[in-house]
């Protein structure tokens, strides 16, 4: 006796749809890695809302892929981004020591000590530098520091994934160029006229001449911004986290942020707080066995080398970078590594 059987095509349809999706994803992944794709979609995303983080990471990844190991990475806020030219540091270092060195600027606007440790762990894990140089100043440790910037970096699923917090999107950001490309389409559109594109291949950006904003208006801005000024345990703890990475494999060096001649005239509290800041840096670096360069006592940049009260212009950056090259020639020797 025959039994009527009705077979629904659901299983086959599902299989065909899944296969089509798989083929589409594979094709998209292949396309995403072509020069055409990288030209059409120059911005990729790692899930961060920070305006500099992803372009700095892309610059570093591109250079690492082309040249291999990066010896030295500079981290800090926009004063690092605009104030240190790695090419000049490399040149001076080689002139002084006869040894070559590869340096990259990873300055991020608003970065504070709080995030310097996790950021350095990520850089060490992915790019294997033997030297991390952190530039920091007295204002970095106050409650009014830009902690929103820290959140914009640390909330990235990719960044969390790098630090051991697994998630599917973190894994996709790490392993799929297509995922990073699609996620970065809005950034390509949003920042198409943004000045982030002026960040060079070595992570450095230039500020030309001097700002049109008057000194008086800049002073007013800082008087408001510096309403609360102190050395907080939270930010000091961030510095300690960074210094804990100092080892036989990775050397951590701290450099004090240069200051404009007018800066310490803005508020008496800034001047009064400086000795506490200086003492803290000496104590923490000494405990960690790390090198420290207190620049205020040794360098005074002329007014024409400042873009504004906080940032060196291209002439000031060249001057500072030469002096960093001299300083590093006395405290750092590139280390052999089995990493590429």
| Spatial order of strands in the largest sheet | 2-1-3-4-5
- Computed over alpha carbons, the radius of gyration is 24 Å
Number of helices: 15
Our measurement of the CA-to-CA distance between the termini, rounded to an integer number of angstroms, reads 72 Å
Low-confidence stretches: none
Average residue-wise pLDDT: 84
Q: Estimate the strand proportion.
A: 5-15%
Write down the CATH class of one domain. Alpha Beta
- Oligomer designation: single chain
* Shape verdict: globular
Helical content band: 40-55%
Second CATH tier, the architecture of one domain: 3-Layer(aba) Sandwich
Global structural class: alpha/beta
Describe this structure in words.
The protein is α/β, with parallel strands linked by helices. The protein has a domain at 68-164 and 194-330: 3-Layer(aba) Sandwich (Rossmann fold), CATH 3.40.50. It is built from 15 helices and 5 strands. It has a 5-stranded parallel beta sheet, with helices on both faces. Helix 5 (86-97) runs parallel beside helix 15 (314-331) and helix 6 runs parallel beside helix 13 (233-243). The N and C termini lie far apart (72 Å). The model has no long low-confidence stretch (mean pLDDT 84).
Key terms:
340 residues; alpha/beta; 5-stranded parallel beta sheet
Helix-strand layout with pairing:
Layout: H1 10-32, H2 35-40, H3 53-67, E1 72-76, H4 78-83, H5 86-97, E2 103-107, H6 113-127, E3 131-136, H7 147-154, H8 157-162, H9 168-175, H10 177-183, H11 185-190, H12 215-225, H13 233-243, E4 251-256, H14 268-288, E5 291-293, H15 314-331
Parallel strand pairs: 1-2, 1-3, 3-4, 4-5
